[in-house]
Amino acid sequence: MGRAPCCSKVGLHRGPWTPSEDALLTNYIQEHGEGHWRSLPKKSGLLRCGKSCRLRWMNYLRPDIKRGNITPDEDDLIIRMHSLLGNRWSLIAGRLPGRTDNEIKNHWNTHLSKRLRSQGTDPSTHKKLPQPVKHEARRRKGSNGTKNTSGKKQRKGRAKPVPAEKHKVHLPKAVRFASLSLPRNDSFGSSTVTSLSPSQVRDPGCGFRTEVAVDVFWGNLKDSDHGGGVSFFVGDADHGLVNGPDLEWQSLVPTTSTLEKLYEEYLQVLNTNDHHDQVELNSFAESLLV
DNA sequence: AAGGGATGCAACCGCGGCAAG
DNA sequence: ACTTGCCGCGGTTGCATCCCT
């Protein structure tokens, strides 16, 4: 429908952020809070488009961002989540405290997809490839997120990321919805889980969303060693579910049997490889999202 | 030692969802 | 019902650095 660009690019800075720009943005947000990205640049004196400001804050400046190597456990979770949800990086990132969707996306594209391929698994479908692909990637030391923000240098043609059999997983797009969440730092054990049944979780119409189930899986799979956060998605009135203000934490008591059932169900789906079950897996993931 | 390809990550781009008018 | 603007997401690109020949 011919929407206007997010901002007039005339006179705006692009490319790497300078420390002074970072400081301006950080100071402004600390003082006024996040949001209103469109008007933020003008108010803060930044010569950047609002979108760029948001990205910089979300992916780099936010104080809760965890920088550094992604641990094997995080790798494991990313792979599992990706097998369920596909390229829903923001959803996956939501379960990895301190990690951004951009970081996870990059990590997947540069490390995990290659690793899976080298292990004989198709990274997009998570199904076994006919034969394992030789791992030709070179190891490289010390590129640990310490990206310089300095100067420029011309660039020569970049090999596109292996286009090899680009099967897209057409899972439903994530939808935005209200959520309540607890930080993962709180121990999973002390967090609460709503008492919804697995069928409720799977019921597309029920309004509860992915993260309940995914966190449940995570809590089980990782045996709480990460301290799981728990998120709740509140259904709408049409489905007779509670709205945010009506939720009482006291009522959200975890029920071990519910968790076990969910875990069983999840394992069942995960442990199967044939086509029929792949379909089931997809619809399972779908049901979590719709 | 140097040049060029490979790698990793920050940043950009375009699109879709949603809410307000 | 339609338009407009904002926000957030996923895909893609740009570029500094690493590593191999």
Automatic annotation (TrEMBL):
Residues 9-61, 62-116 form the HTH myb-type domain. Residues 114-166 are annotated as: Disordered. GO terms for molecular function: transcription cis-regulatory region binding. Keywords: DNA-binding, Nucleus, Repeat, Transcription, Transcription regulation. SUPFAM superfamilies: Homeodomain-like (SSF46689). Signal peptide: none annotated. InterPro entries: Homeodomain-like_sf (IPR009057), Myb_dom (IPR017930), Myb_TF_plants (IPR015495), SANT/Myb (IPR001005). GO terms for cellular component: nucleus. Residues 9-61, 62-112 form the Myb-like domain. It holds the Pfam family Myb_DNA-binding. CDD domains: SANT. It is found in: Nucleus. Residues 150-159 have a biased composition (Basic residues). This is TRANSCRIPTION FACTOR MYB51-LIKE ISOFORM X1.
